[in-house]
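Reading a protein record of the kind used here takes only a little practice. Think of the row as the fold of the chain written in a discrete alphabet. A record is reproduced here so that you can trace the correspondence yourselves:
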Amino acid sequence: MDKIKLAQRIGWIAAGFAIIMAVLLIANFVQTSLNDPIENKTIPALVKRLSQNPGDEALKAEIRAFDLMARKAYFTSQWQLRTGIYLMFLGIIISILAVRFVLSAKSKLNEIDRANEVQGLDKLVAQKWVIYVGSGLIVLALASGFLSSNSLKKYMVDENIVVQEEQPAEISAPAQTQQVSAPVDSATLAGNTATAENPVATDNPATNTETAAVTATAPAGIPTLAQLKANYPFFRGAEGMGVASQKNTPTDWNGAGGKNVVWKVKVPKSGFSSPIIWGNQLFVTGADAQVRMVYCYDKNTGKLMWEAAADNIQGSPASAPKVTADTGLAAPTMATDGRAVFAIFGTGDVIGLDMSGKRLWARNLGVPDNHYGHSSSLIIYKDKLLIQYDTNRSGKLMALDVKSGTTVWETARNSKISWSSPVLVNTGSRMELILTTNPNVNSYNPETGKELWNIACLSGEVGPSAGYADGMVFAANEYAKLVGIKLGGAPEIVWEADEYLPEVSSPLAVNGLLYIATTYGVFTCLDAKTGEKLWEQEYGDAFYSSPIYADGKVYITDMSGKTHIVKATKDYQKIGTPELGEKSVCSPVFADGKVYLRGMNNLYCIGK
């Protein structure tokens, strides 16, 4: 009888606890909905103040602190909601088990007089309160879970337009363009703008738009590695690891003053994708809540050769997903194999175009459930377009046929959301596709999508891609750690470090050295084999771009637009700090002795 009473008390306590947790979960959800930390208006106000006084270091530090607090508050809230749901279900389970124990014990005590039985339990059974309370708890649990899980979804699909930080537009003169392709679906010939300092032409632009659906055919052939290296086809170069093969790269320029600026044009739509180059063609993307665009420029003159809209795509959302201003809808860098060019946007739209702007194919992968916005860049292996698609709902790695856009293979990933990009690695014995996410560094066979190995070593919101050199993979993330992974029969971590960690910028490994750039303005060099720090420099401005090696030098552009150039040596040897004259988060790109830089507003060609 004592056990029955104890079980009865435990059951009621557990049921009460579950009800309290359900009420707290709903209250917490309502409070979060009314005051979303990511929607905090303090940061935009501070950014506006900073635009009026860009040299205020104290204000920059305050913005970084508020940004960090907002993100921590948001994900702490999400963790609390999930934990609350687990605790509520635990209370329900305990209460059900307690009731079952009481009923079972009662049936075995037939000799006990009913007057001595537990009156509370008899009343509970007689009035069917077991069913009512249990059902109520389940409904509350489901409602709380639904509301909690949809908090993030609501943030993503809000129909408000993308909020972008306002940037001053430089006065520019229109320039003449010339048509290089037949009219095609969404591929338009449009006017190009050139600055007054470097006019490309003097006539008004001509525009030719054709909306008829015309599908082009991609030429056959797979580029060799030598061809890839001779161009700049992917994010961070030919293999996506930040090593450029170009020589005689410039080290001195001034974007505002026009020093060594070959040309400068305003990109019609904003975006944070870095340029890619093949032959004489340079490609970037731009987007807003209404349109998603691909732009093709003549890399030698800055003329806009053609532009193409990623529109009329089956499955594309009617309204753009809501993304943060520092990501936008055109953050992923494009990819090209010299036969065609490919782009992906924050809507989940992927488009393939031939080199003259004709549409080959287009499809929607599903709107990414991503609270900042999708930013993983594309890369190509042979005839496959490889896409890392990690969202809050699930993670997957996809290979699309470059000619048709059809899925060749798709691999589900046991990972959390990430913003990093895949890199291709030739280990000497095989090709591997390396991805970073929370919690794993994963390797896949790019031909089949089969996972080759994984090591759990990361945490948090993973933005940096992997680095690779000399049989070692390097992975890092802010608030986690930096690891050196030695490949072989069984890949293993051979060293770890946690002093300087990147939040967005990807590590660069070259010549036995490893370079790390942080969002708090520190650029550091380590011994790649041991992880020993060789030198560090504090520049003050945050780094979102990734360091790139070219011609014995390392280039890293901070958010203020200054590019820090150092010799790729064990000791710190500064070469120069040329300035772009506007903010930038894109990585430098090299071709034919020139460097191409994308600022918040303009695209630059630097050289002599």
Q: What stands out?
A: The chain has two domains: 2-157, 172-606.
